[in-house]
């Protein structure tokens, strides 16, 4: 099964590691990722206004392209996944949005939400399988105590995202176990990092991120993983005075699979 | 031809406001058989009934049609009125022009037209009615109570005290139910055991009561007055005649790691156990899953320890069949699972408890011997947060839409008990609303808040997180409109209550409906609250809906009265509207037999006349006392042999034809 891969803008700039490690790992795992060259930015933030159509169109174009290819749409960035999943749901369930968006796009066949939006972690769990992944790991992360940081975009609103139990998620911990690490469960792993509030109120974000890092440290984590470039930025930049490394999950995946051995220390702080 | 009278009711303005009753009276005058028609303001009043009686006599009516409210309301009233005037009561038809017409329409013209059509249909049906005569059946003068909690015990005692025999079937090894797990009871703070155990002992000692503990109802057949019930008594592996309850076997049992359900899993118990000190009967049971003897074949220490030679590893389940005239459901409740409320860290922190678990911690026979201790480290808490409505009044898809009703009061009770013993502990209660209707209830809650200094905060908790060895509670104070962060050592969750999951199976056996929340449905929510829609089956306690102990005991008594009303009769008048099979048409296919929920249909080889010749055929027979007249067989019958008296296929078709005319 091949996936229509949607990396999103940040993975082409600040979060190249997330992208590169994901691609190399998928290749090693025998999961073909096909990237459509004409994808556009998903819009980053899901438009809350129900009459806001234009900002939904780019996402719908990508979803429709995946449908044409008969593929699932594979996302990896939490924000892209969030936007894609929810806009896809709008197209399935909201007649008004569906009609107006299709009027704009004038596709040959109207798009009605047929594409399945799959997160990279879900692909690892459901397509590859964590048991299979465990067998493919060449360099298990034995003895490394790592906390998963989910943030909110992947989990909430849970009825729409249907990603995992929003209050006690486990997919990243299962992933960490599969690559040989020791997952550390800590209570603040599903709390918000502050997101874009960082632009306006850095202090507040600092407080939120500080709490996440402190909570992970109390439970004995030596590093965190995340799927979200913004979470990672905030945790590193605004949750400062903490020397907790924060990796993309795909970096550890690549390390475990041995596809990124030259880059086992991927800590390259953003400016 | 049948002489028919038509009576159109105004029901004040309920019908007359939307339906032109005079027009209906006029419109039906030309219908076949109608010799008289009139209207009246309240047909159900004595005046209305006497008008019916007079008309029957004066016009020699053979049948009447009443255009009024639903037959569920007044069919019996009108049948009795007709009977008083010498008419067979089944020659009365109701056209429901209120619920089916005036209440649901606004346009008077259209509603009037519809009322006329409904009346015509009733007339068309009545023209084919035949007088029906109900049969009689006997009453087995014994009752069965399913569930041995306070509801079941009270119902059984009340029935037994009136002189009738009662059996209680309880699935666990002892009677007592949830109430036995409680420490104190609101609003008087009596010790639960002190007021419950005398009743348990009384039930056990009562000459009219038999207890079947560690037993389950397996099969029910029959009908009101004559139920046949198969009861499975699970093997205790202990001979009840020989055992003297000394408890030596429990002391000697080396397997002491089974989860203790009486302590809500907060403590361990041995494989052979008596659930709690005051258990009735005081008879141990071997949990075969946990027993080394059963799991590995080794051990046998209890057998050696038992001086009475009562241990019996070979004991098997026993099944008995008993007959009862009435059955009472008292299957109770449990707190709902909080698996989907992990924002409160219930599955992740030992210091986050449900209220029932906290109750066990407060109780002297509980896992901490009654000391208020944190289960994580055994230390005394400095601050306790109670969260109400966890899963109750919920629209998040994880919980229940209803109010669990008892939580406000038991939370106030627990908060008060904590403060009474340890005034230095900070106690905070988060609530959506504090609901305390009930005698002395609001005073009780105010005492907790005012005299004991329990801090009540209107608002919900968003998250509980472990933080530096304690619990950090993130919440909102809605009255002060601010966010709160409280350090707590224990968090107590008032989990919504839900019906015991075993109720569903028993409900299915007895054809008793459940609502969307799995509570048993009462026959009428206001007027018949302790009767199920199935004749002879009654409801007691939480299985019908959330209620506290005083209410449960009151309802248990009410259910007992209904049972006594039934058992005191020698004969029951049946419903003549039952199925009948035309043996000349029946082809013996058995479709009806397989479908009948009441086992009322059997097959017989019978000689029948078919086109002038005598033939032996396999034909369906209906047991008229068992048939409840549901009509499922008439629909299933491929040859049209099955029919329902009072609702024959011809009658239904005549109604349809009249409507479509």
Summarize the structure in words.
The complex is a heterodimer of chains A (271) and B (661). Chain A has 271 residues and is an alpha/beta fold. In chain A, helix 1 links the parallel strand 1 (3-6) and strand 2. Helix content of chain A is 44%, strand content 10%. Chain A folds into two domains: 3-120, Up-down Bundle (Glutathione S-transferase Yfyf (Class Pi), Chain A, domain 2); 130-263, Rossmann fold, CATH 3.40.50.1860. Chain A starts with a strand and ends in a 14-residue tail after the last helix. In chain A, helix 5 packs across helix 6. Chain A is built from eleven helices and eight strands. Chain B has 661 residues and is α/β, with parallel strands linked by helices. In chain B, the strands form twelve sheets. In chain B, strands 10-7-6-18-29 form a five-stranded parallel sheet. Chain B has a five-stranded parallel sheet with strand order 20-27-21-22-23. A four-stranded parallel sheet of chain B has the order 2-1-3-4, sandwiched between helices. In chain B, a hairpin with a 2-residue loop joins strand 11 and strand 12 (226-233). The two termini of chain B are 21 Å apart. The interface between A and B is medium-sized, with 12 and 14 residues.
Briefly summarize what is shown:
With 271 residues, chain A is α/β, with parallel strands linked by helices. Chain A has helices spanning 16-28, 54-68, 78-93, 95-105, 120-128, 130-136, 158-161, 171-178, 202-218, 229-237, 249-257; strands spanning 3-6, 33-35, 72-75, 117-119, 145-148, 182-184, 223-226, 246-248.
Question: What features would you highlight for this structure?
Answer:
heterodimer; A: 271 residues; alpha/beta; Glutathione S-transferase Yfyf (Class Pi), Chain A, domain 2; Rossmann fold; 2 domains; 4-stranded parallel β-sheet; 11 helices; disordered C terminus; B: 661 residues; FAD/NAD(P)-binding domain; 5 domains; 5-stranded parallel β-sheet; 18 helices; 34 strands; 27% helix; 25% strand; globular
